């Protein structure tokens, strides 16, 4: 399930969590991109704006805007890198860590429910299928489709 969480945090997949009242309340507090940044900073400890942009799969200007919003709300601090004053580091404040912890606890709870509902083989199958879907959606729309009559390798367990 750690792989599933990674796919969620990096924005490669989005869970249909709209029905969960706690997550709806959290999303009313901050936009989803800000939540993802909070969760990534919780995991990393600190990040440069370039690292945050890469983690979010977003342009540097977007990551900088997210950093500004988080700082304005008192959720993160921006500091100059001690070794290179041109580089800006972003790290969570205690308030940001508390909010990220709340979101992470709720997401962990939902992922545990999924894991409990599935057999271990089904969890593996879910992860494999999710990764396949992500790869398929990352390919350009005009990429040639695989030949359905071509032999395929099917893993049997």
TrEMBL record:
Gene Ontology terms, MF aspect: DNA-binding transcription factor activity
Pfam families referenced in this protein's UniProt entry, alphabetically: MarR
Any single GO BP term: response to stress
Gene3D superfamilies in alphabetical order: Winged helix-like DNA-binding domain superfamily/Winged helix DNA-binding domain
Record-linked PROSITE patterns: HTH_MARR_2
InterPro entries: HTH_MarR-typ, MarR/SlyA-like, WH-like_DNA-bd_sf, WH_DNA-bd_sf
Segments of this protein annotated with the region Disordered: 138-157
HTH marR-type domain segment(s): 1-135
Spans through the membrane: none
Protein name, per record: MarR family transcriptional regulator
Species of the source: Caldinitratiruptor microaerophilus
């Amino acid at each position: 399930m750690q792989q599933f969480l990674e796919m969620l945090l990096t924005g490669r997949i989005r869970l249909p969590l709209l029905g969960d009242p706690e997550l709806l309340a959290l999303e009313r507090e901050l936009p989803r991109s800000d939540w993802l940044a909070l969760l990534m900073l919780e995991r990393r400890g600190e990040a440069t704006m370039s690292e945050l942009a890469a983690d979010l799969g977003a342009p540097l200007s977007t990551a900088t805007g997210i950093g500004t919003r988080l700082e304005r709300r008192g959720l993160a601090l921006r500091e100059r890198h001690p070794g290179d004053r041109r580089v800006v580091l972003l790290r969570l404040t205690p308030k940001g860590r508390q909010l990220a912890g709340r979101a992470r606890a709720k997401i962990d709870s939902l992922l545990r429910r999924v894991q409990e509902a599935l057999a271990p083989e089904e969890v593996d199958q879910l992860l494999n299928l999710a990764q396949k879907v992500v790869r398929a959606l990352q390919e350009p729309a005009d990429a040639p489709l695989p030949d359905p009559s071509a032999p395929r390798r099917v893993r049997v367990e």
